[in-house]
Amino acid sequence: MDAPDEEDLDPTSGIDDDQERWRTDYENGRRDFLQQCAELQRRCEVAGLRFEHCDDARGLCVYGQSAEIHLQPGSAARAVEVCDRDTAQGLLELPFEDYVLLGQYLAYWDSRSGYIEAAFAPIGDTSQDEVLTFFGGADRPGHDEAVTLQADSAGNGTGMALSIGPASVALLPFAGDRHHMPVLSLKLWNILFAGQAGACDAVVDLLERVANSLFLEIELRFSFSLQLVRVSRPMRQRAPVSDGYVPPLHSFPSDEYEREPMAYYTYGRSAAPLPLLQFLAFYQVLEYYFQRYGRLAAEQRVRSELSRPEFGVSPDTDITALLEKAQIVKGMDRGCESDQLRQVLGECVGEDQVREFLTSDPGRRRYFAPQLNAGKNSKRRKDGSRSLRNAVADRIYAVRNSIVHPKDGKRDFILPYSAAAEDLAPAIELVRFLAQQVLRRTKRPLQLPVRLPPDRGSDDAP
Questions:
Q1: For residue 180, pLDDT beyond 60
Q2: Does the structure show a pLDDT above 70 at 307?
Q3: Pairing mode, if any, of strands 99-101 and 80-82?
Q4: Please, are residues 223 and 194 in contact by the beta-carbon 8 Å criterion?
Q5: Distance, CA of 28 to CA of 188 (rounded, Å)
Q6: pLDDT value of position 316
Q7: Of 71, 98, 125, which marks where a domain is finished?
Q8: Taking the CB of residue 280, how many other CB atoms lie within 10 A of it?
Q9: Same structural domain for residues 306 and 406?
Q10: Based on the domain organization, do 316 and 289 belong to the same domain?
Q11: Which of 101, 194, 312, 353 makes a 20 to 30 Å CA pair with 59?
């Protein structure tokens, strides 16, 4: 048997070949991707759509650059991001020039053919595979049948049809940062509207009404829940309150925070995909202290009454006034909630702190512009009724009521998944900041167990 060559014994002998092969594959792939983007750009120019080359700021694109396509006017305020050859090829195989994205849903409407496809997913423990098997009988690989329902069966003559089953590959380019191809979709045919003005809103409204009706009926009959898939907006990066020096952590924690409000605060941090729930969780941190600081304010009023030099000169009048203030102390849990919120912020958060936080970010400045203007002259008012802190408390309380008190006939409430809910980010940032300040104000020294002497028989004792 011949002795092996030295090159065969060298474990690094094939590395250079692998690197060269990888480099060649990368360059070929990059060339193909750029050619695909050029063809997409040409089609956008013919159709009058906006096409933009973008830098890969997030480092997600294989070839270090990406492109964005803005579909028809009326589409949702998000662009289709093209980061790889698969997405580019998927778009090239679609008549995307006729597509309109529908709200914040992973859904599109082909305005020429009147076809809608919208991804949906189960809620809870039911898996997508179970739902797919239920609707499409997908117990065999490659099975792509679906349940089809005809609107004409009701005799309304619309010609619309609906199917539920496996999603098509056409949804993939619009999935944004979703890691997996949507498995299930709802498809509607013959959705045609005369003219473009308002057509997108009408299609979204129709999709929501049909999906809500269908999914509730499915839940009542078969006991599993479904919902349309949404493509969430990227989370805004919260601007720092100041650029001051932040010392590093070198010591063991010296303070602790009350367990109950910290539970609400932790819940709020974990509820980022659900803005209404997140706002209310941070608000409940403030609400936890309503009775404590309301009672404190009432007690201060009683002490102030007792400390008056003229107290006791008119016994009947003074006793009546004192009893009224004592009754306030006794009934603080029934006080006006907006006043209690003002009292908590007045005790725990400084006026300058609130102003600095609101003005340190452009989005917050715009959102709270009325409150900032109301607080400009606060130092001139002795009663503080027009202070920025009070104006902010009133705005937060109004947002809270818009979430928890929806009433028939009123239009100022905030619905889940609505545009108003998507725009709550500045309010959530503020109520989280206020919750942080209240927690810091109410902290106490961390109580640690008394150190026990080491066991004399233990080898681990220091």
A1: no
A2: no
A3: unpaired
A4: no
A5: 40
A6: 53
A7: 98
A8: 21
A9: yes
A10: yes
A11: 101
Residues 424 and 366 in one domain: yes
Q: What sign results for the dihedral spanned by CA atoms 347, 351, 354, 357? A: negative
> What is the average per-residue pLDDT within 305-310?
59
Q: Could you give the CA distance from residue 102 to residue 205 in angstroms, rounded to a whole number?
A: 10
pLDDT at residue 349, as a whole number: 93
Is 459 within a domain? no
| Residue-range definition of the domain harbouring residue 77 | 27-98
How many independent structural domains does the chain possess?
Answer: 3
Half-sphere exposure of 341 (CA within 13 A, CB side): 23
| Mean pLDDT rounded to a whole number for the chain | 77
Task: Identify whether residues 214 and 296 lie together within a single domain.
Answer: no
Position 199 pLDDT exceeds 70: yes
- In this structure, are 307 and 357 located in the same domain? yes
Q: Which residues are registered as beta bridge partners of 230?
A: 105
> Which pLDDT belongs to residue 21?
84
d(CA 274, CA 280): 10
CA distances from 405 to 5, 392, 395, 399, 436 (A): 82, 20, 15, 10, 26
Residue 22 within any structural domain of the chain? no
The predicted pLDDT at position 217 comes to: 87
Is the pLDDT at 244 greater than 50? The verdict is no
In a domain, 458, yes or no: no
In terms of domains, do 181 and 259 share one?
Answer: no
To the nearest whole percent, how much of the chain has pLDDT over 70?
66
